Amino acid sequence: MRKSQIIIGGIIALIVGIQACEKFEPGLPLEDSLLDGPIEGLSLSEMQRFNDGDRTFNDEVFTVEKGLGPLFVSNSCVSCHAGDGKGNPFSTLTRFGQVDETGNQFLHLGGPQLQNRAIPGYQPEVLPPGAAFSRFTPPAVTGLGLLEFVPDDVLLQMADPNDLDGDGISGRVNWINIPSYINPRSGSVSHNGRYIGRFGKKASVYDLLQQTVDALAQDMGISTLYHPIDVYSGQKVDPEISTQRVNNLGFYLQTLKAPIPRNQTDADVIKGKALFTQVNCSSCHKPKLTTGNAPISALAFKDFYPYTDLLLHDMGSGLDDGYTEGTAKTNEWRTPPLWGLGLSPNSQGGKYFLMHDGMATSIEQAIELHGGEAVASRQQYNNLSPTDKAAIIKFLKSL
Amino acid sequence: MHKKYYVTLLISVSLFVPALVHAQIDSTLFRRAENRDSLNNTMNMDAIYNRPMLSAGKLPISVGGYMEANWQHIGQDGVSQGNQFQFRRFTIFMASTISKRIKFMSELEFENGTKEINIEFAALDMEFHPLLNLRGGIILSPIGAFNQNHDGPKWEFTDRPISATQLLPSTWSNAGFGLYGKHYDDDWMFGYEAYVSGGFDQSIINNEQGKTYLAATKSNTDRFELSLTGQPLFSGKLAARNNRIGEIGISYMGGIYNRYVDNGNVIDEKRTLSVYAVDFNTKIPHIKTFITGEWAWIKLMVPESYTQQYGERQQGGFVDIVQPVLQRKILGWPKASLSLACRLEYVDWNVGKLRETGDNIGEDLWSVVGGLSFRPNSETVLRLNYRHQRSRDFFANPPVLLGGFSFGISTYF
């Protein structure tokens, strides 16, 4: 009798235990602490494409057999954008060869990107003598689809290239030549055959498909049907990744959710937000943008809060590396979105590596590096009390 | 000339002073067969019937094996895999005593159904002297302890140690030859093993794991036929055991791992790999606590211009502590036992600092596995485990948490 009771008790405990198993597994991190995840409102088929792109972005490691290199910067997307966040100096890119809007004079010598690593048996690229260069730290990749579908008209309305309003802030678009495989979005504005770039440190990339194709080719040495050229030899080669996967990779980038702000009811954060506008940071780091029409309904006509205007601004001689892309000047940089700023250390190895080249290791240091059009705002920030400065920093970390 | 070989042999043996090595072959599996001549007058077409196991009226071969099946419910950072039912291994041993001092043993393993089918061991052993045995065939490299002593029913955990299967590539076997021997002296046993075999290839730094990963070579199914390096992998071990204290072993495995000549042309530099390991096991008297573990250090040459994601140094190991809490008749099984078990594991896939920042490279993992095991007899085990694991990426960003329960059965047959 006692034995039977033990057995029955054991079976019941087992059933209950199995049902409760999930309770003993690690829980989901807070949603607002993660950059990874799809934007709300995707259809089931869109979710499948998102998952496919997610696997390529976060799990795929390109090997020699899969086409890596022979020269490369990184062997996977995730090694530059851990958790879809900003990169570490380990994966900082070196771009070289262009000093003005006449174009890159070093394309025949491997420009515009230095592949500083090589598969065994090969020698990596070295910077050609005399080439101007700049170092670009990989950005976070979240919310990019929302940025992609902000209408060109909106960017042009925000631009004030001649500072007609006299506020010291100009801002202009980068007119770029787009690759032949790109179909301009409906409503795109062109000027002398050039289109408005909006991605990249110099706004020299038109859309996320171009960004994906360029990253595969220039960062990893992976040829695609869109760009079937080996970066090393310059010769035509077979695609090393299927077009469907390239498209889904682009789709993944388009449909990654926007970073979720944290601690928005905190008094210091509220105060910092007000001060951010008061010292005029928001002239370039525009808090709110709105998408226009988009082929993905979850991205169409949405308000979002990236803290960027996607325009080029003169940032002063201190940030002038003597290198540029498109029609941007060497001292002009596209306003980087500030969303997700507080989560940057989670992907950068526990530290901040900010500004275009990661030279700033704190938000305060990044502010101090702002020159050119941002000098007035920087001075206003510096005139604030330590408490007010701390409130702005806390606000920025809440993004 | 013969004298020269004899001297070489003596030097080799003296370098590896005798010993007990974890018994790769269970001698009780062997049954003696009468001497027979396999070169009798038959044609090739008769070969299929001209095999010792088919000699009527004799018992020339022993067959056995083990199996492992699991259920697990594991989740990572809030994403659960749900209920997973796995048939991890079905392993068949076939052994034969060909003559008094010539034996053959093999281990054929089916993993995860038929996803992987491997001959993990298939070697002929010839004894010239207890100190001098020749082994040839598909051999298990004597690196650490787990690689040779990996049978599922021996362990109280559903998963094999990560350091043994992913840092070290257990089960790691290659075609090769070598010598081994043992020496007994009262309570002491000493053993040595020394083998040359096929080895690793460049996939250890060119793989989909994105890190130095010795186990990547295992997917090269040509390695039992063709060594791309053309260089042997040397593996050797010295072990000592005292019946009252326990056993300790030190082992080494190394050689050139990359293909540096192709079609007669030099295409790359030679790059070496060295693996060192220490293993031990002991049973604490009176309380019967069994402790076993191993630690390994890996060092290899990686081209400086390649990516630092593929580390030049790795290390890791595990310690298992098993405490029997009940040993008596249970539910009708006369010699049943119930044990508590704990495993501590650590692996650093990339020991070093980032060149760009000077910060320590992450790419590490540690885990704690608790367990409860029930053995109705010594050859069958039911085990319930709970794993808690933390792993960090290359940049040492916040760790990924993994955890959950697993239950498994495993038995010899």
State the major sheet of chain B: 16 strands, antiparallel, barrel
Taken from the alpha-carbon principal axes, the silhouette of chain B is: globular
- CATH class bucket of chain B: Mainly Beta
So how many helices of chain A? Answer: 10
Helix and strand string of chain B, N-terminal first?
A: HEEEEEHEEEEEEEEEEEEE
Range of helix content of chain B: under 10%
Secondary-structure element series of chain A:
HHEEEEEHHEEEHHHEEEEHHH
> Helix- and strand-based class of chain A?
alpha+beta
Radius of gyration of chain A: 23 Å
C-alpha end-to-end distance of chain B = 49 Å
Tally the beta strands of chain B: 18
Class of secondary structure makeup of chain B? mainly beta
Helix coverage percent of chain A: 25-40%
Radius of gyration of chain B: 23 Å
Protein name (chain B): Porin
InterPro entries (chain B): Porin_dom_sf
Organism (chain B): Chryseobacterium lactis
Keywords (chain B): Signal
Which SSEs are present, and which pair or pack?
The complex is a heterodimer of chains A (399) and B (413).
Chain A (H helix, E strand, L loop, with lengths): L1 H18 L24 H15 L12 E2 L20 E4 L16 E2 L2 E2 L14 E4 L7 H5 L3 H7 L15 E3 L13 E2 L2 E4 L10 H13 L22 H13 L11 H12 L10 E2 L12 E2 L7 E3 L17 E3 L28 H6 L6 H8 L3 H13 L1
Antiparallel strand pairs in A: 1-4, 2-3, 2-5, 6-8, 7-8, 9-10, 11-12
Chain B lengths: L1 H14 L46 E15 L2 E21 L2 E10 L4 E14 L2 E9 L21 H6 L5 E13 L2 E10 L35 E10 L3 E11 L4 E2 L2 E2 L5 E13 L4 E12 L12 E18 L2 E16 L15 E14 L2 E13 L7 E13 L1
Antiparallel strand pairs in B: 1-2, 1-18, 2-3, 3-4, 4-5, 5-6, 6-7, 7-8, 8-9, 9-12, 10-11, 12-13, 13-14, 14-15, 15-16, 16-17, 17-18
